[in-house]
Specification:
about 100 residues; alpha+beta; two-stranded antiparallel sheet; 4 strands; elongated; binds zinc ion
Length: about 100
């Protein structure tokens, strides 16, 4: 299983990345036809492609793995609080 981890992590990063996709309003054409008149698509500004955010679940997993959110972040916050509290207690003893 561990042999597959690098590939799984690469897949996770790729799934979390934003990408360009055909515009859902104009189907990638760049304009919308109405009564035989073509109007510039305001969704994609006639580019035909729009930015699609990466998969939210993949992003959440990635942020948890990196320790930016989730239980690891909470443990870090508690450890930082204890360090500051210990420092303040030592400082109070020296007064
Ligand atoms: Zn469009």
């Amino acid at each position: 299983m561990l042999n597959h981890m690098p590939r799984i992590l690469v897949d996770l990063v790729e799934d979390s990345e934003s990408r360009k996709a055909p515009c859902p309003v104009c189907d990638g054409i760049g304009y919308v036809a109405l009564d035989t008149i073509g109007y510039t698509c305001i969704e994609c500004d006639s580019a035909g492609r729009v930015r699609v955010p990466g998969d939210a679940h993949a992003r959440r997993w990635l942020f948890e793995i990196l320790g930016l959110i989730g239980p690891r972040k909470a443990r870090t916050a508690v450890a930082e609080y204890q360090t500051v509290a210990n420092h303040m207690a030592r400082s109070a003893e020296n007064i």
